[in-house]
Amino acid sequence: MPRAFVLGGYGLIGAECCRALACAGFDVTAVGRSRAAAAQSGLAVDWLYRDLVQTDAATWRADLAGADVVVNAAGALQDGPRDDLDGVHDRALAALIDALDGSATRVVQISAAGVSPDAPTEFFRSKARGDARLMASALDWVILRPTLVLAPAAYGGTALLRAQAATPLVHLQVFPDAPVQTVALSDLAQAVVTAARGGIPRRRVYDLTEAGSRSFAATTTRMRAWLGLPDWRLSLTLPRPLPRLTGRIADGLGRLGWRSPLRTNALVSLQAGITGDPSAWETAGGAPCRALDETLSAMPATPQDRWFARMYLLLPLAIGVLALFWTASGLIALAQPQRSADVLILRGTAPGLAMAIALAGGVADVALGLAILWRRWARAAALGMIAVAGSYLFGSLAFTPDLWLDPMGPMVKVLPTLPLALIVASLIEPR
């Protein structure tokens, strides 16, 4: 049985490649750095835990001894606390090439349509450097460059595409004339199997894409019809400065660990268009990739898809509201702690204890409000908000029950934060 290793095995593309290779008779080992993400992938394959950027050639040489195929499905969109574009796309590949030097192992590199040394984003430039390094080697390699990948699951740009298609009433158009081509994830995975089996000429670069293209506006309209939603009533093209501003904000959030598809690299890539030429792949004997309508017909939308599309943009809104509410509440309490303490003192609490409770509550509120903005701590912060809000509510029942009858409803207004925090904690998934 031929052995295949898939780098980035729990990613959207990597996981599908693992499944397709296993179904094709390969003994598959998936490679990733996170045990938690591997456990959530549901893949029935062996796992090798490695940080691609930190793994040297000697380690790879031992790990990959006897491998018939190595599929590189690892990638990152933009530099951040957890992502190093040059490290993932170039330096890691250099170590891999060094490790496989002199072997008969075939390398199937999953790159991206549009990469070039002078591309407008570091994502494409770093991908191009890695591709060039592989092409200059003596290894047995195939490079596949897919366009926009569509799958039953959604992540990154495809998730954003669904979210934009689900916006209510108004079609908010961003770069509406940008040309877009797509490829079904299953077609990409089968192309990997074909390359791994040696079914196409080696040491060549192939674009994987449908034959035709359409504008981004037409693509989102088609996605809306796929979701089963009614036509928009209005259409509004956003001015160019707004997407640029959004990209910079998303870049800033990227420093806090959020991998937003609205980051500058993604928006610049979309503005330039996402296109490829399938002729080399088809001439080499590869199966033609399905058109967008065929792809969508093969994965009919469900209520879960509509829920996801609607909630995708509501999740960051919910996080922002919680961050603002808790931070502002804490700062107000810390700015005038005596007023907060007086509420307890008037009801029989000792002054020292009342002040301590007021200050501790203010600090806790600010800490939770800021922590939820950091991707690593967001879920824990949401659960902390539930715990703290619950303690406020139960504490008020025990010590200040009259506040529940206050005309301004200070305690009643805390109640909506509980389900909102619970929703955020439930929707945040580790990656």
From TrEMBL:
Recorded GO MF terms: protein-containing complex binding
Entry keyword set: Membrane, Transmembrane, Transmembrane helix
Segments forming domain NAD(P)-binding: 8-153
Pfam families in alphabetical order: DoxX_3 (PF13781), NAD_binding_10 (PF13460)
Chain coiled-coil ranges: none
Residues that span the membrane, as ranges: 312-333, 353-373, 380-399, 411-428
InterPro entries: ComplexI_NDUFA9_subunit (IPR051207), DoxX-like (IPR025695), NAD(P)-bd_dom (IPR016040), NAD(P)-bd_dom_sf (IPR036291)
Family annotation (PANTHER family): NADH DEHYDROGENASE [UBIQUINONE] 1 ALPHA SUBCOMPLEX SUBUNIT 9, MITOCHONDRIAL, NADH-UBIQUINONE OXIDOREDUCTASE 39 KDA SUBUNIT-RELATED
Protein's recorded name: Oxidoreductase
Organism expressing this protein natively: Pararhodobacter marinus
Native organism taxonomy: Bacteria, Pseudomonadati, Pseudomonadota, Alphaproteobacteria, Rhodobacterales
